[in-house]
Structure formats: structure tokens, C-alpha cells
Design brief:
The chain has two domains: 124 residues, Arc Repressor Mutant, subunit A; 77 residues, Winged helix-like DNA-binding domain superfamily/Winged helix DNA-binding domain (Arc Repressor Mutant, subunit A). The protein has eight helices and five strands, in the order αβααββααααββα.
Length: 232
């Protein structure tokens, strides 16, 4: 499966944030999830995704096993919850750190402690660093070289989230310059003369459509269940 895109990560981060910060309002309806995703505070960058974009992103997260429908028979709206704590799995402090990195981009340990206060109150900076080290051993986060004049190194998302070091900003674990990029596979044919990249794109599009159909079917089933309950 292809790496998660920006919309998927933003939706995932919003779900984690609201679960940790406002558990009484969690799981989230599609409208609540759209508002959480597009809010202007605690986000970098700020986005303005429409409902269709949110729906398609959550469908892909369901396909990955990172989210699911959470509507009960008596629910008036379709609701969603994340499954990242089960899929990876992660503890509460680890989820809080990941959510901040997803929603705000690369952060220093000091910034992570400050920005995660509503999600998990770290007593000391050393606690944040211990969580980062634990996540780093699982390649869930990556430490970058400290920039000139900075007191702390920054951390960003790791491999499962499509994270890599930014150009000119090597990771502490691998500070060597990157090798030249491999030749583009666009012109490399496969069986039937279909370019490899085109075939991969077609498969990815098919996966997205299947995930969206599965989510729509689940929503229809939940709606039918609610209608039956009202008539019983």
C-alpha cells in the first residue's frame, strides 16, 4: 500500500487529538472531523479540506486499519475513531507525541512538551525525550541533526507515516549525503507493455475506490439499523 498522504495524516492527527483532549466529544462525526481537520489553531500548515476529501481520507485510513466506523445503532450520525493505538500499538504518551508531529510538523522536545500539554502532561523534558527514543527504536519518528544556533535537535515522523529527512537536513542516525536518485521507472515496461508506475497508480486508485465503497456500505448499514430501530 502506498504511503499515507497529507489528508490522511491530518485526519488521523485530528482524531487522536480529540480523543486525548476532548474524550466526551469522541468519536467524531464527519462534520466534527472536518472542523477539527481544518481548524486554524494547533495546525501547521492550516488546510481547508472539503467533506469529500475528508470522507476519502477516512476511507483510506479504514483500509489501512488505522481507523473505523464507531456509530452505534442509536447514533444519529456516522462517527469515526482511530485505531492507531491498536495498529502499532502505542501508549497514551506516545500517541500524544505522534499527534503533535502529525498536526504541527517537525518539533524539538521542548516544543513537543508544550504543544502536547492538553493531550498528555509530561512532567519533565526527559520524559518527552524517553518517549521519542522509544518511538525512534521502532522507526516511528526520526531525529534530525541540530541546526547551528539551536539548543535542541528536531524530530519528525518516521517510515510508517511516509516521513523522511528533509533535503539538507540529514537524520542523526544517517548523516551521510543522499545517493543520486535512481533512474525513473516510468519508461520500464511490464507485462502487456504497461509502464510499472502506471500500473502502481492504477492499483492505488483501485484500493482507494474499494476503501470508499466499503465505508459507504458501512454507513448505509448503520443508517438502516437506525431506521429499523425507530420503526420497532
Amino acid at each position: 500500500m502506498i504511503e499515507p498522504d497529507a489528508a490522511e495524516l491530518r485526519v488521523l492527527g485530528a482524531l487522536i487529538e480529540k480523543q486525548r483532549a476532548t474524550p466526551d466529544a469522541y468519536p467524531l462525526s464527519l462534520n466534527s472531523l472536518r472542523l477539527a481537520t481544518n481548524q486554524s489553531t494547533g495546525r501547521d500548515p492550516v488546510v481547508d479540506y472539503d467533506e469529500d476529501t475528508i470522507r476519502e481520507a477516512i476511507a483510506r485510513l479504514v483500509r489501512r486499519g488505522w481507523a473505523r466506523l464507531a456509530s452505534g445503532p442509536g447514533s444519529r450520525a456516522t462517527k469515526y475513531r482511530h485505531l492507531l493505538d491498536e495498529a502499532l500499538p502505542c501508549s497514551g504518551p506516545e500517541l500524544s507525541v505522534l499527534a503533535v508531529l502529525i498536526l504541527r510538523g517537525p518539533q524539538t522536545p521542548g516544543a513537543l512538551r508544550q504543544h502536547s500539554e492538553r493531550l498528555h502532561a509530561f512532567a519533565t523534558l526527559e520524559e518527552v525525550e524517553a518517549v521519542l527514543e522509544a518511538l525512534s527504536r521502532r522507526r516511528l519518528v526520526v531525529q534530525h541533526e541540530r541546526r547551528p544556533g539551536q539548543k535542541e535537535a528536531r524530530w519528525s515522523l518516521g517510515e510508517p507515516f511516509g516521513g523522511t529527512a528533509s533535503p539538507g537536513e540529514p537524520t542523526a542516525a544517517d548523516p551521510a549525503p543522499a545517493l543520486p536518485p535512481a533512474p525513473s521507472p516510468v519508461a520500464m515496461p511490464v507485462a502487456g507493455g504497461v509502464p510499472a508506475v502506471a500500473a502502481a497508480d492504477a492499483n492505488a486508485e483501485l484500493e482507494r475506490r474499494i476503501a470508499a465503497l466499503e465505508l459507504d456500505l458501512a454507513e448505509l448499514r448503520a443508517l438502516v439499523a437506525r431506521l429499523r430501530e425507530r420503526h420497532d
